[in-house]
Each structure stands twice: as structure tokens, then as C-alpha cells.
What we know:
Blueprint: H1 9-16, E1 21-22, E2 24-30, E3 33-39, E4 43-48, E5 51-58, H2 64-67, E6 73-77, H3 85-90, E7 102-104, E8 110-112, E9 117-129, E10 132-144, E11 150-153, E12 156-159
Antiparallel strand pairs: 1-11, 2-3, 2-6, 4-5, 5-10, 6-9, 7-8, 9-10, 11-12
Amino acid sequence: MTLNHELDTLTLRQVFAQHPSGVAALCAELDGIKTGIVASSFTVGVSLEPALVMFAVQKSSNTWPKLREAGRIGVSVLSEQNDGVCAQIASKKGDRFAGLDTHVTEQAALFIEESTLWIDTTIYNEVEAGDHWVVLLQVHGHRLLNNSPSIFYGSSFHTLRVPALV
């Protein structure tokens, strides 16, 4: 068996799409303006001491330079009930939060209602990684909402059914 050594952008997108991942909205309210990005690269359990999660963001992002100035960043792991939220928050035009039910903490972390999990975070470290930044976030609190999570696989969104506890 031989390995394919094609590493062009299109091929890599197809290869990386074969790994299912959760989808998270990372948001805050800055000077009264709701700001956020969506990441399918969000990873939990990076460290337990201190509690760390992480995600990757393109260096070309226009939103990350604004969001990185937030004192707190709310991470909402999106659920099947958040249909359309990814496209809306990732949009380059219009009000990204129009019609969305959100919750803002006293520290201005912004969460999306009907998600499966909320994690209250601050930036712990940022590491340059090619055309992206890998951002480590320290966890300060969480809320489990028990909705079935949305996953990104094969370049589209799917639902991962969570079985009911007996």
C-alpha cells in the first residue's frame, strides 16, 4: 500500500474532512457589540491542571484580532438545535447574531442558547502554526445543557445522538 503525497489545499480539505469534529462558537460582547467565530477545530481535554481547551483560527481572520481582546470568551459547543448558527456567525456581512438567543455573563462572555455545552474561558496562550494560530483557552466554568451535539464530517453538519440515561 502506498501513501498519497498530494498536499495541495483542496486535497488536504478532503482528507481533514474525514475526521469528525464538534463545532463550537467562540463569542464575547465587546463594548456592547456581539462578536464571534466558529471553529470545527475545537478540542477539549488538552490539560486538566490547569483546565485547558484549544482551537485553531486562520491568521487571515478579521474577527479573531477583535475577539482576542475580550476578557472572557464564551465557548458554545453547538447542538442539533443550533441549525444555521454556524453559517450565520461565520458570515462576513450583516448582523451575525440577529435572531439568535444568547446569554452574556457579567464578564462579557457570550453563549448561544440551545447549545450542548458552555465553557467560560480566557486566553492562556497563542502559538503560531503555519497559516493558523493555535489558541489555548483556560476554563473558568461550564454548563452542561444535555442537547445532542452537532458534528462536522465530510464537509457537512450531522447530529450525534446522545442516548438517554436509564
